[in-house]
Specification:
about 450 residues; alpha+beta; Immunoglobulin-like; 7-stranded mixed beta sheet; elongated; disordered N terminus; transmembrane helix
Length: about 450
């Protein structure tokens, strides 16, 4: 009996040791990573409409690192390239701080017109001034904005001077100093961007190439969504199969495209292309399995010019899966793919810590493939504007919040701690059972 009671004690000590090592490893790794990783971020060019709600200037392209410190922003009617220039706003634009919706932690910097500082304390790292255009703002009005991040304890005064020249060194990717542009476009201007779809039918076991003709007054992002057409049974929910995938996508004469390799009923944008101004043709190929259910399909193309809100140009087309079996009739009647609106964060972007659900037998995986762009076209670096995206910018890049930046370390540390605690609980129950047996005998 001594052996029976002694073994649990040894294992009990091992459980405590595992818990302690796990907690220590997490603390050490977290501290080391926080000190070694500088904060970088990416601003995006913004397109807003007159008369809309004020919009945040927070980094729309993501924040990388633990952003504990101060953001310093500058807004001007002229490019931010002259440290001695006075910063003034163009007619029709205004900046608000301390007004809620993410700007409550911001204030105008005394003695520096057009410069604003915002406290950044994880997980609230997206504080920023708000920019707005009045009803009287003219189409084509342009302003410039820049940002510098200052770590806790750093020199905000140096950042105030530095942000005034943040446009001097254009950045291709995340850096610690960024600048971008704000453009006002009226609904009439946006509507000059037009789309036309050509969507032939898709036979079972075959492929079909469909096209979108884009007349782009502005550079933008073309997105394609697929769904069961009005009056047809609804598609089965992903990851159930509908038997059709996008096989490729390309833009000509310039532009870059990507597509997911999961099926057309995936809850995400299926194809997306970054296009320059001008006339472009986007061609994409759909491939069907040999065994295919017949459907009438709605395809919706949206050309995203506006950063927020509704009003982007759209076009719809319909085509058929020419299947080997009729569409089921027991499903609810579908409606066409709903007209989409560009994400409308009237508040600052809300970072989220990625969740890690337990795997299931039918776990869904959405993968992405890139199609090389023609020579001279923009690089295909924008990730999927997906409905399944983790926290971050509208292009799917992961935006670190300071909390999710440590998620892998945190998960490992907690796994060790939880392992030790589970050992403690199990042995406690085992010893209790053993005592009851001894008392019974």
């Amino acid at each position: 009996m001594r052996t029976a009671t002694g073994a649990p004690r040894r294992v009990l000590s091992a459980g405590v040791a595992v818990a302690a090592v796990g907690a220590g490893a997490f603390a050490f790794a977290a501290g080391a990573r926080a000190e070694s990783q500088p904060v970088t971020f990416q601003l995006r060019d913004l397109v807003i409409q007159p008369g809309e709600s004020e919009r945040p200037l927070a980094p729309g392209g993501g924040v990388y690192g633990i952003a504990d410190g101060t953001w310093v922003f500058a807004v001007s009617a002229k490019p931010l390239t002259d440290a001695g220039a006075a910063l003034e706003l163009p007619a029709g634009l205004s900046v608000k701080v301390g007004a809620g919706s993410g700007s409550s932690a911001c204030a105008a910097v005394a003695g520096a017109a057009g410069v604003y500082s915002c406290d950044s304390t994880p997980p609230n790292i997206y504080s920023s001034p708000l920019i707005g255009a009045s009803d009287a703002a003219k189409d084509g009005t342009v302003a410039y904005y820049g940002a510098v991040f200052v770590p806790r304890g750093g020199s905000v005064a140096d950042a105030v001077a530095g942000v005034k020249t943040s446009g001097s060194s254009p950045a291709d990717g995340p850096t610690g100093v960024q600048a971008a542009r704000i453009t006002v476009e009226t609904p009439g201007h946006v509507a000059r961007n037009t789309l036309r779809l050509t969507t032939p039918d898709l036979p079972a076991g075959g492929t079909v190439t469909q096209q979108v003709q884009v007349h782009a007054v502005d550079p933008g992002k073309l997105q394609l969504f697929f769904g069961s057409a009005a009056g047809q049974p609804s598609w089965p929910s992903f990851p159930a199969s509908v038997g059709v995938k996008a096989a490729d996508a390309a833009a000509a004469p310039a532009g870059s495209c990507r597509h997911v390799t999961s099926e057309l009923n995936s809850p995400t944008t299926i194809i997306w292309c970054d296009l320059p101004a001008g006339d472009s043709t986007v061609s994409y190929t759909l491939a069907a399995q040999p065994e295919l259910v017949s459907w009438k399909v709605d395809v919706r193309a949206e050309y995203q010019v506006l950063t927020w809100g509704a009003g982007n140009p759209e076009a719809h087309g319909t085509f058929a899966f020419l299947g080997t079996a009729p569409a089921p009739t027991a499903s609810p009647t579908a409606t066409p793919t709903e007209p989409g609106a560009t994400p409308d964060p009237t508040a600052t972007p809300t970072p989220t810590v990625p969740e890690h659900p337990a795997p299931t037998a039918a776990a869904a995986t959405v993968t992405v493939t890139a199609t090389p762009a023609p020579a001279g076209s923009p690089s295909a670096t924008t990730a999927a504007p997906a409905a399944l995206r983790p926290g971050g910018g509208d292009d799917g890049t992961l935006a670190s919040t300071g909390a999710d930046d440590l998620t892998p370390t945190l998960g490992g540390g907690l796994a060790l701690v939880s392992g030790g605690l589970l050992t403690l609980v199990a042995l406690h129950r085992r010893r209790g059972t053993h005592r009851r047996r001894r008392a019974h005998h």
